[in-house]
Structure formats: structure tokens, C-alpha cells
């Protein structure tokens, strides 16, 4: 019996062959892209919706409450109910706002969040776009969301929104520096920018070759995780959305579905950065204890286990972000910048220098 990942590859090839028979050659690359995009569009929104449900459940347990439990079993249909509610709410645009920019910002913020899923290897042969520069693509696309947030604050023509957008811009630009510096040692050791090859470089020895189990990898992981939490504006780095100071920051003037899209993008980014942490330092979809499919001789079970391992690791780091949100207070702006420029960047430079010497030796 063929494994599931082989079935996925064969299915894509079959669709492309049918396309070659009925479409002109110039449209075949577009068909290939469309297949990958369809997979992302189907998976990513479901992850976004149910991360909101998961956070509400986690918060409730931390505060000795039950959480959503009315709509569906265990409240599992609550995200759908919230989505319908947002769809029927009135879309209010302030009179002084730039209507085009105000509309474009939510669209511009959610598109990069979806694109990030394209290079995530959920399992062997289960990457929507297996690019040789997959990691570079991820880092480049993740920075586009900064522009969308600034568009939302600028287009609203609201002082609180603009202040939140400026905070977000300063924060994201600053934390991208240690974020990238902490990734370079991984690229040097793996010898590739491909997310798939970075995962493969950590294979063997029951998970002991995961980069996090090396001194430089542990330091890089800590720097990258702190920087990624700041990049997605999660507590204690949620200064751009400081409710106690600037109402709701850059999305103060948004309502209805536009407001919901900002939050969906945030939760998509939460999972995406957690997933890239797993890819870079925790072996991606690789299992630390082997695969049951190998033991039982069921090859089709191995891709399922890889998908489950990848999802489990990613959700684990999402839960850490949720835990931090309801445990730590919000930082001040000067504290935020001090952590980045006084601590993370110098440590990242030293870590990079050490790994450079190791590779030369």
C-alpha cells in the first residue's frame, strides 16, 4: 500500500496531467500554484478559528472557569458562531478615514499570514511550496504584515490608531534584527535555506540531533522565540495594542469582519512562528521515538504520524504563548527596546561568531 504522502504527490501529478490535456502550456504553472493555494486556504482558516477556541479554553482553565460550552459539544462550534456574528455586524468607517487604505489593511494583513503556510513542511512531501529559499521566503513575507498594520493605523485617521501603528512599526523592525541573526547559525550548520532540508539535517539518533540540544541551538532558540513573540504582538510585547493606554491600538476604528480578520491573522501568525521554531530547532515533523508505522509495517501510517508530531509541537509553542499572555504584565516601551538592543542582538552576534568558528574548524 502506498503511503499517504505518495498519494498526495500522485494526486497532484494526475491533476496536472489532466490540465496539460485541456489547458495551454502557459497555464500549467498556474494550475500547480492553484493546487498548493487551495490546500493552504482550506487548512489555514481552520487553524485560525480553532486557536481562538483553544485560547478561550486555556484562559478559562487558568481563571477557574469553564470557557465556551454552549455552541456545540465542548463549545467546538463557537468559532463558527463568532464568525457569523462578525459577518452580520455593521462595518463602520470613520468619516475622516481614508476609505481605500482602511479597507485594504485587513486584506494586506491576512494574505502574508496565509503565505507563511506555503513553506511549512507538515511531513515528508507535504510542503505546499518546497522552495530552495523557503526560510528566506518565510522571513521576508512575515515582515510584510508590518506595512499592513501601519496602513490600518494611518488609514483610520485616529490618534490612538496611528500611535499603535508607530509602536508596531518600531517594535517589529527592531526585533527582526535578532530574529534573523538567530536563524543564520541554523542555515550555516544545515547548509541550506530550504525548510525541508533543515528538518532533514536534524534526523537520526532519536531526536538528539535536533539543533535545540546544542549550546548554540539552545541560545538561538531562546532568542528566536522571544523575537517571534514580539513579532506577532503577543504579551508581554503587545504594546501596539495597549488597551489601558491607546484603546485597541491600530485596529481601534475597525468593526465587523475587518476587526475579525486582524485577529485571525494574529492567530495564524502565532501558529506559523511556532511551526517555524519547530522546523529550525525541534526537528520539524521528525519523531523522537520512531514511527509506529515502521514497527507495524504500515507505510501509510508514517505520514499521518509526521503530521501529528508537527502539529503537536507547533500547538505546544502556541500554548506557551497563551500561557505568557495570562502570566506576564505588559512591558514599557523602553523595556521593550532595551531587551532587543542591549541583550538579544549582542547575544545573537556572539552566538553567530561561535558557530562561524565551529564551521571553520
What does this structure look like?
It is globular, with a radius of gyration of 21 Å. The model has no long low-confidence stretch (mean pLDDT 81). With 361 residues, it is mainly α. It is built from 14 helices and no strands.
Terminal CA distance:
46 Å
Please provide the ordered H/E string of secondary-structure elements.
HHHHHHHHHHHHHH
Q: Strand share of the residues?
A: under 5%
Global mean pLDDT: 81
Number of strand segments: 0
Quick summary of this structure?
The protein has helices at 4-22, 28-62, 78-88, 99-115, 134-142, 144-155, 159-190, 195-200, 215-231, 243-246, 256-281, 292-296, 301-325, 333-360. The protein has 14 helices and no strands.
Record keyword descriptors for this entry.
14 helices; 361 residues; mainly alpha
Indicate the topology.
Blueprint: H1 4-22, H2 28-62, H3 78-88, H4 99-115, H5 134-142, H6 144-155, H7 159-190, H8 195-200, H9 215-231, H10 243-246, H11 256-281, H12 292-296, H13 301-325, H14 333-360
